[in-house]
Amino acid sequence: MSEESLPTDALPEYAERVLEAADSIPSGHVMTYGDVAEWLEEGGPRQVGRVMALYGGAVPWWRVVRADGALLPGHELEALGRYRDEGTPLKEASRASEGHLPRIDMRRARWDGGERAQGHT
pLDDT value at position 63? Predict the structure, then answer.
């Protein structure tokens, strides 16, 4: 899908679907860019990342993350505050880590997008 050919006043259908997926992630949980693409059965991590970069400000963007759990560059402190407010599981940073910022504990925070995840902690 070429973004140059899309009307500027309408949100592309794929972007709407990505934003709906992001909006459905429960507080305290995350999905990776690849998880969202897999859940939608369309696109890939880069396409989801592009949609989030262009249009993600209106949804809980901090819940769509890199697979390694690193905080979004340039938005680390805002995201970290939101993770702490929501109780998102974090791994504290080691002294060797850049900026001493924690990472998301992907094993505990990752949401699979299904009803079976409701009891997941």
Answer: 98
pLDDT by residue (tens digit) across 23-49? Answer: 999 999 999 999 999 999 999 999 999
Contact 79, 72 (CB under 8 A): yes
Return the closest-CA partner of residue 23 out of 78, 54, 50, 62.
Answer: 62
> For residue range 45-88, what is the model confidence (pLDDT) as tens digits?
999 999 999 999 999 999 999 999 999 989 999 999 999 999 99
Structure tokens at 89: 């599981």
Q: Which two tokens stand for residue 62?
A: 């901090």
Sign of CA dihedral 32, 55, 10, 7: negative
| Residue located via tokens 């709407």 | 16
What is the chain's percent helix, strand, coil content, to nearest 5? 50, 10, 40
pTM: 0.81
